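Exam revision sheet. Question 4 asks you to relate a sequence to its structure. Input first:
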Amino acid sequence: MTVALLQTYFDAFNAGDTNAMLDCLSDDIEHHVNEGQIRAGKEKFAAFCDHMSHCYRENLTDMVLFANEDGSRGSAEFIVNGTYLNTDEGLPEANGQTYRLPAGSFFSIRDGKISRVVTYYNLADWTRQVSA
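Answer key, structure tokens:
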């Protein structure tokens, strides 16, 4: 069940369907952003997705999903294939640069919903790619 939930979440991400992503989340979701603050609740998660969609177009490939035996924890390893569309505050200027970046996410699952998502990637690698 956990792997299927994570697959649904990532399929929604790749489709650009924030509402379907939100359907996978608990109301009190804790979103731990790489190099950022923890955002609590679906409203802040949705606002983050809106911001990301404005600045980036991303598709995740080479997805490998894992879950522990009782389904309370999961993880994913993948490649982010992206285009930097609009300058994100504090980052290099955007002009349509493309990037390819290994990344991973870790999840807590409660009552069939994602209650925590933590995403990691190498920001220095991304910065190098979009600054080249």
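Marking note for examiners. The mean pLDDT is 95.
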